[in-house]
Amino acid sequence: MMRYDLNEIILATKMGGLPVILVEGSYDVKFYENLVKLNGLNVDILAVENIPEYSEGCKAVCKALQEFERIINESDESLEPYLMGIIDGDARKYTNEIPQITNLLILRCYSFETHLITQQGLKNVVSTTTSAAKIIDDKLFGALNSRFVQLRRMLYYCSLDALKHKCEPNYKGVMTYSDDFVKSIGTPQKSIWEKVEKRINLLDEFAEDKNISIDNLREIAKGKWYLHVWGSFLLYEIKNLFKLCGQEITECQFCRAGNKSKCEWKASGQINIPIMESILKQEKNIDLEETGYIVEYIKEHLAV
Q1: pTM
Q2: Which residues have C-beta within 8 Å of that of residue 85, sequence separation ≥ 6?
């Protein structure tokens, strides 16, 4: 199959009137395709690795856009609204590694996966995996959010530890952004968390110096970590929602009538982490308000 080089892609986008957005890799493509489709934007999403001489990742996106800058400056400025790139935030605001490149958007959160963790996504996961769609309300959201508090705190300090290591290479952290050990914090194997917990005072000092609080969790927690911890939490809670029926969450009609074996909050069918994540990645779960800044950037910089 023929692969087009960057120059050919740029010329083709202008001739065809279809701007291109470069993204870091294959996992990003579907999210951004869903986002532009949902907002009626006529653009194409291209993983940068599919351009000859470019690999995957944020550095490759930046490299391609720097070459695009050179082409614009040396030949044709009218090409500018036909190519842009999007890269993950990767906590860059705290490491002072923010590239200044034409038509480059840096996500506000750590990575695109973080944008999948929304109240709308939670509602659709519960609707899909139970029969309680009609009685999902603020009581459910409140119950689950309160139960997630401790896991959220653990994820926050694990992420702080990884960020401190990234900002201070001489700091020997328990965590680094390159590993997946954080997945164990929500399981009985809590050795990772126990090590991080001993450093809380040190990490609080680091957070104060960087002006970070738990409200910045979406900026410092690796998206894949956050999504896995959130998905694991939801998996456990959904399997046990029927125990909360009529207590912490709205009572279903069957339990109200004394038919508890038919509780609408019971999980229907087999569910697991991959199923959870596949539901969260669906187009309908994209929060239009939260991702609005991405859409506005596209509208402002591309000929859409």
Answers
A1: 0.90
A2: 21, 22, 23, 48, 61, 62, 64, 65, 101, 103, 104, 105
Task: Identify the CA nearest to 285 among candidates 142, 134, 105, 114.
Answer: 114
Q: Are strands 104-106 and 44-47 parallel, antiparallel or unpaired?
A: unpaired
Residue 105: half-sphere exposure toward Cβ, Cα within 13 Å: 25
Rg (CA), the chain: 22
Strand partners, 22: 46, 85
CA distance 109 to 221: 9
Whole-angstrom distance, CA of residue 280 vs CA of residue 120? 9
pLDDT in tens, 235-272: 999 999 999 999 999 999 999 999 999 999 999 878 88
The number of beta carbons lying within 10 Å of the beta carbon of residue 250 is: 20
Where do we find the tokens 């900026």?
Answer: 219
Q: Cα 192 to chain center, whole Å?
A: 23
- The Cα-based distances of 293 to 148, 183, 219 in angstroms read 27, 30, 15
Angle made by CA atoms 13, 16, 20, in degrees to the nearest 5: 30
CA angle 216, 222, 223 (to 5 degrees): 95
Both tokens assigned to 283:
């187009």
**Is there a contact between 263 and 255 (Cβ–Cβ < 8 Å)?**
yes
| Whether 253 contacts 264, CB under 8 Å | yes
β-strands 44-47, 83-87 pairing: unpaired
Q: Tokens 């596949």 map to which residue?
A: 278
Place of tokens 């939801």: 234
Rounded Cα distance, 206 and 82, in Å? 42
**Cα–Cα distance measured from residue 91 to residue 144, given in angstroms and rounded to the nearest whole number:** 27
More confident residue, 131 or 271: 131
Question: Is the dihedral angle over the CA atoms 46, 48, 52, 55 positive or is it negative?
Answer: negative
